[in-house]
Amino acid sequence: MLVDESRLHIAIQKSGRLSDYSRGLLKDAGLRIQNGKNDLTARVENFPADLMFVRDDDIPTFVSDGVCEFGVVGENVLQEFALGAAEAGIEIVARLGFGRCSLRIAAPETAEYRGPETLRGSRIATSYPCLVRRFLDERGIEADVVKMNGAVELAPRLGIAGFVCDLVSTGATLEANGLRAVETVLDSEAVLVRTARDVGDRKAELGSRLLSRIDGVLATRDSKYIMMNAGEESLERISAILPGAEAPTIVPLHGRPGHFAVHAVCQESVFWETLQKLKDAGASAILVVPIEKMML
């Protein structure tokens, strides 16, 4: 695979739920991606960057080695890689808010569980041996960690291990296999990572531009632009109610002495209850609109 050194390279999951979310994030950041979902790479038409579609387990290696300057990967995969590497060479630059799940230890539904001490002397099957070993070491518990690359939930039924540790989103897979979650090893979400290697001034500048766009996308997800009118005597109370807002913009209304237009970006959810509080505080003509783009 020939790598164009004049362009950024972003590693994302080739298939799976993180693949669609990652592509959506980049499209929201204004990147027009050529069709290439089933290929190894895709070119961005309006930004000097290329996507590389790889297995999620390979993304930390691509970024750590500097083959890709950026990558989108689950924190569970990243931490497992970092614990097994002499030098990770990666830094997290943004938490993305999607792909949330938990790495949890599960026991058979019929087994008695009295806390982490129950794991002492047991066998635990998992695809994340480094994370499980860290969990056990932090608690001073001796147990055997059995590495499995798939079908972890079958381990107790097959007599391979008494416990399992696997990713849990809804818990339905555990329940279907007669298991129940008993300990949380790690709460995970997708993260944007960047190589720690020196990439040169040109790519560093491109990386800053890309991060600025992504930061803007993340900032607008829960943000709303709220506008209202209010009398001067209500401004202090209204400012205190606005959720997650910095200092609002206050502009005098033409022809209405003592009355103002109040505009603010709210970085928290704006509920109907919030609107009622604003009205009770003296606001009128309240308007809440989504924010499509924001440059921080």
Describe this structure in words.
- The protein is α/β, with parallel strands linked by helices.
- It folds into 3 domains: 8-98 and 190-220, Periplasmic binding protein-like II (D-Maltodextrin-Binding Protein, domain 2), CATH 3.40.190; 101-187, D-Maltodextrin-Binding Protein, domain 2 (3-Layer(aba) Sandwich); 224-290, Alpha-Beta Plaits (2-Layer Sandwich).
- It is 28% helix and 31% strand.
- It has 9 helices and 15 strands.
- A 6-stranded mixed beta sheet has the order 2-3-1-4-11-5. Strands 8-7-9-6-10 form a 5-stranded mixed beta sheet. A 4-stranded antiparallel beta sheet has the order 13-14-12-15, with helices on one face.
- Strand 13 and strand 14 form a beta hairpin.
- The protein starts with 7 loop residues before the first strand and ends in a 6-residue tail after the last strand.
- The model has no long low-confidence stretch (mean pLDDT 91).
